Amino acid sequence: MADRLAKRVLLIGWDAADWKVITPLLDAGKMPALEFFINHGVMGNLATLRPILSPMLWNSIATGKYPDKHGIWGFTEPDPHSGGVRLVTSTSRKVKAIWNILTQKGFKTHQVGWFASHPAEPIHGISVSDHFQVATGPVNEPWPMAAGTVHPESLAETFAKLRMHPGEVTADMLLPFIPRLNEIDLEKDKRPNIAAKNLAETAGIHNAATWILENQEWDFLAAYYIGIDHFSHGFANFHPPKLEGVPDEMFELYREVLEGAYRFHDLLLARLLELAGPETTFILMSDHGFHSDHLRPRAIPKEPAGPAIQHRPTGVFAMMGPGIRQDQRIYGARLLDITPTILTLFGLPVGEDMDGKVLLQVFEEPPAVEKISSWEEVPGPCGMHPEDMRVDAETSKAVLDQFIALGYVEAPDENKQKAVAVSLREQKYNLGRVYLYSRRAVQAIPLLKEIAEGNPEEKRYAVHLALSYSQCGRHKEARAVLESLTSAREDQRALADWLRGEFHFAEDNPEAALEALGRAEQLDPLLPDLHIRIGQTHFRKRRIAEAERAFLKALAADPDSPLAHMWMARVSLQQKRNREAAEEALTAVGLEHDLPIGHFCLGIALARLRHFQRAIQAFETALSLAPRFELAHRWLLRLHSLPGGDRKRARQHAAWLAEFGRDDRKAAKARTS
Amino acid sequence: MITVVSGLPRSGTSLTMRMLAAGGLTPLTDGLRLANEDNPRGYYEWEPIKQLPANPALIAQAEGKVVKVISSLLLSLPLNYEYRVVFLRRPISQVVASQAAMILRETGSPPKLGAAAMQSALEAHLHGVVSWLRARPSIAVHWVDYAALVGRPLDHARAIAAFLGGGLDVNAMAGQADASLHRNR
Predict the structure, then answer these.
(1) What CATH number corresponds to the domain at position A604?
(2) Which of A335, A364, A385 corresponds to the end of one domain?
(3) What residues in chain A have their Cβ under 8 A from chain B's Cβ atoms?
(4) Could you tell me if B69 lies within 8 Å of chain A, comparing CB atoms?
(5) Which CATH class is domain B2-177?
């Protein structure tokens, strides 16, 4: 076992927290606890996963694995007891979360409020499920705590008293969020009630977390606060600068709510820092950001999880504690990296089946990382529910259907049946998108094909099927799917034209590509990455100046677009502006680590600037993401062949290149025959 | 105190209800589900129990009585009452066969899911319910093997009566068990 690097770890989850909102507040001295945190630790962006849906993301954070492995595929699942649907549960998670692994190794481990944590798991410590803080009725009615909300159950009554009902939130409590509350007719405008609910639920979670810190021994505590996400969905459109279409009066009434939510969370953070103490290693993070500027969507799609369109793909990450670098910015963190990093803090090996890596850049002295093939193979009690309780949704539904047929259980009404069908379909859609966005489109195709063909009215399924075909190079099938999109909604037609542009691009028909992309721009000028595609098309035709103009447009639309920065790096390299290229590439990979070409560009720029060791590191990172990246191998062969270079490594890259050549010839022969 | 008879559908819950009624407990039933070929002596069911997930408070009506709560509904019991659960176990393959025969008779079609798939689904479901019960020490459970109950009704009537605190007519209870109903193996 490696050395334990942390005495205790406190993982704080702020759903949807975003540096774009936080930074001006820090600059104005309005978040002093977080200011202290980042001055004494590291901070950076945290790249999310797609689809950007919180239950899937928080379970990837807790397991270090993509959702296809952990089994949480959306917000809801069929409920075998009611015949309807319910929020996703802990029994649907197929693999160990960090608190299960730590339980297995004997650490005193607690979790509060994590997404999909109901029923509470029997871990070696306290588990408070995500049903805990949600009031079930008016304030004057009993608020019983459902079975399975708290483990151990003997503490259920203690924790019940820590909850706060929205009805207990007084006008005085709301004034910091809504200073002109007394001007609002609460019969007509329910927004203050939403704020009260968010405030009460956040307070409940915080009370549970602080009770544990004050009353229990602990090695690890994960506390999940959903408040910022809920405040953002309710009030981000009123956050300055004023969004076009928002009435002046509404803007003035609610412009301070989001700021108030962040400042409230800063107060809670201060208390957590105080209670946990300086010997603790703290991680503060969000699963994604939230659009709060000109990129705020103009409308919410009327589809399941439609509000997720407001999520921004970049979350926040900060870490502080003994042995952690101070006042440093770090790059390349992904939410999949949290669990591997925590395991390393506890001196435990990282599962080779985990998709994340240890964030070595946060440590003053990077530790050696130990590996284990899989924590799933380690036998013994780990605080998960028994395997037979973890029944998949399809099996549950089969049992329920049989009991209904036998007359023992009430058949759900039509609405419930429809809800179950939609829930199962959305799970397939989400899983398909997991495969698509993790570059495994071949696995996405059967799932998306099934739901797209069965539900032709849902154009989004067809769009993602077309994207999957496109990723696999099956352009003909992608085009056929696109033909069905002519009557689609405007935003989907824009996406279809964007895709058509991509096909023309793939077929080396730049003029047709630019025409299709131009149509898409007219329909939806804010379409993500549109200007990047336009620039890319110009770049291919060596029209570098036009390409640069398009990439600058993309950056004007979204200064945090990793792809736009990556392409600016390529443009700069083309024009021998190597220092600029290095900076752009570094920004790109800082925003999104999984950009092999970004690391590659960085490598070229650094090599040209004669920073050979750093260039080698950049090329190696590119290869870790794309092992058959031939040009990266060629650069490494070249760099290792320089005087004083590593001849052994040079020979290794030469051997790989020869092997790729053999494979290519074999593939070409197979195609010919 | 509420006495609950539970288990998978077709695992012997109706027989157990009848035994307890004969022994002296008051069954909560409404007689809406009539006896038929599948249950010639009646189901001893209470139709509103199907609403338990949506309205857990209705269990209050079973206070001081015995009520049949099928396995999938058990998890909806509110925990602010005291329960004694008599839980019936029967080999899953027999349960699947019996359920299939009943569905065929009632609908004219076989079940949607094949026997092997249903067996595995029911095993998973049953284990989930059993785990739920075992995790709740406040709920007293008496496990009864259906074949043994039919084979040695007096022994089991005594054991059930003892679990429920005595005072039941064990001979009348045993008299309800009829081996001829133990079919669909």
Answers:
(1) 1.25.40.10
(2) A385
(3) 79-83, 91, 122, 144, 147, 153, 385-386, 388-389, 391, 395-396, 398-403, 405-410
(4) no
(5) alpha beta
CATH code, domain with A324: 3.40.720.10
Collect all residues of chain B within an 8 Å Cβ-Cβ radius of residue A81: 53, 72-73, 75-76
Is residue A169 one of the residues assigned to a domain? yes
- Mean pLDDT check: name the lowest of A120-124, A161-165, A666-670, B70-74: A666-670
Q: Which long-range contacts (CB under 8 A, 24 or more apart) does A441-445 make?
A: A441/A467, A441/A468, A441/A469, A441/A471, A441/A472, A442/A472, A443/A68, A444/A468, A445/A469, A445/A472
Nearest CA to CA, how far is B170 from chain A (Å)? 28
- Cite the beta strand spans of A360-443 per DSSP E: 371-372
pLDDT band for B184, please (50, 70, 90 cuts). Answer: very low
Residues of chain B with C-beta less than 8 angstroms from the C-beta of A154: none
Chain A residues whose CB is inside 8 A of the B120 CB are 395
B127 has a chain A CB within 8 A of its CB = yes
Question: Could you say which of A348, A368, A385 is where a domain stops?
Answer: A385
ipTM of the complex: 0.75
Q: Same domain, yes or no, for A588 and A640?
A: yes
Kindly report the nearest CA distance between residue B166 and chain A, in angstroms.
30
Q: Which amino acid is at A487?
A: S
Residues A288-317, mean pLDDT to the nearest whole number: 89
* DSSP single-letter state for residue A87: E
pLDDT digits over B28-40, tens only? 988 665 556 656 6
Q: Do B136 and A400 touch (CB under 8 A)?
A: no
Neighbours of A386 (CB within 10 A): 15
| Token code pair at residue A410 | 């009430």
Helix spans in B24-169 (H): 71-74, 92-107, 115-134, 146-151, 153-163
**Residue A528: band (very low, low, confident or very high) from pLDDT cuts 50, 70, 90:** low
Average pLDDT of chain A to the nearest whole number? 91
Q: In terms of domains, do A364 and A441 share one?
A: no
Nearest 10 degrees: CA dihedral of A642, A644, A649, A653? 0
Q: How confident is the model at residue A665 (pLDDT cuts 50, 70, 90)?
A: confident
Interface test with A, best of B34, B72, B77 (most A CBs within 10 A): B72
* Residues A158, A80 share a domain: yes
- The beta-carbon neighbor of A398 closest among B9, B78, B121 is B121
Query: What's the pLDDT score for residue A404?
Result: 79
Interface test with B, best of A408, A413, A416 (most B CBs within 10 A): A408
pTM for the predicted model, two decimal places: 0.77
Same domain (yes/no): A77, A204: yes
For residue A650, give its domain range. Answer: 578-673
8 Å CB contact of B78 and A144: yes
For B131, the closest of A153, A388, A399 (CB atoms) is A388
State mean pLDDT over B142-169: 93
